[in-house]
Specification:
Layout (H helix, E strand, L loop, with lengths): L7 H22 L8 H6 L8 H18 L2 H22 L3 H9 L3 H11 L11 E2 L3 E2 L1 H10 L9 H7 L1 E3 L9 E4 L2 E7 L2 E4 L8 E4 L6 E4 L6
Antiparallel strand pairs: 1-2, 3-8, 4-5, 4-8, 5-6, 6-7
Helix pairs in contact: 1-4, 3-4, 3-6, 4-5, 6-7
């Protein structure tokens, strides 16, 4: 059965995320000084604003850091890193970085984990039957990895992954949701783009939504 609306728990989670984002923005406005953790500063000192994968990897690290500490400064640093990732991505796609980041910021925190994890692997080569960060992915292997970063276990095959997700329609599609056609699966990025690991000889990439019969799934809402 196709769902055309989100469930109440998901709506509540999104509200919490938006409230937290508002608090972080307020903190920035009143002059809270954000100091990234020392280890993060050392690890990502050379990150370029045009390097989408590096920006996303930094954002992913800061998101995990914030969830561990609950520190407002860590969350504010994550929001800034996410915006940098959105701007770097948008500049390559001809989109608005602010609008893309607003779309990312409106989704549940677990989906932000999924999305940043997938984006952190842009440029990693396609490798059949592999799901290893920095080394290689097939299409379902990338999905498996990205969702594992949010603590969500999915089946290995693309067909079983879409079956494990709550079916949704295109009108309710959110960044991080699954986009499937027989034999291939990807994740929605926003603004009619997806991120996926395409085929042998290619790398993890962002591209426009496929022009074919598609199924869409929310693997977060499907969790018990």
């Amino acid at each position: 059965m196709t769902r055309t609306t989100r469930t109440k728990p998901a709506a509540v989670r999104r509200l919490v995320t938006r409230i937290t984002l508002g608090i972080a923005a307020l903190a920035t406005a009143v002059g809270v000084t954000v100091v990234a953790p020392e280890t993060a500063s050392a690890q990502y000192a050379a990150t370029s604003s045009t390097d989408v994968a590096s920006d996303a990897n930094r954002a992913l690290w800061l998101l995990a850091r914030w969830e561990e500490t609950g520190n407002l400064a860590d969350y504010t640093a994550y929001v800034r890193a996410r915006l940098e990732t959105a701007e770097a991505t948008a500049s390559q796609l001809g989109l608005s970085g602010a609008e893309l980041d607003a779309e990312w910021g409106a989704i549940d925190v677990p989906k932000q984990h999924v999305l940043m994890a997938a984006m952190s692997q842009i440029g990693v080569p396609y490798r059949s039957q592999m799901s290893k960060a920095g080394r290689g992915f097939d299409c379902s292997g990338l999905v498996l990895f990205a969702y594992s970063q949010a603590g969500i276990g999915l089946p290995r095959s693309s067909r079983d992954q879409i079956r494990a997700a709550a079916e949704i329609d295109r009108a309710t599609l959110e960044p991080g949701d699954l986009v499937y056609y027989p034999g291939h699966i990807s994740m929605y990025l926003g603004d009619d783009f997806v991120i996926h690991s395409p085929q042998p000889g290619q790398e993890v990439e962002v591209r426009e939504m496929f022009d074919r019969s598609l199924r869409f799934g929310d693997a977060i809402d499907a969790q018990p």
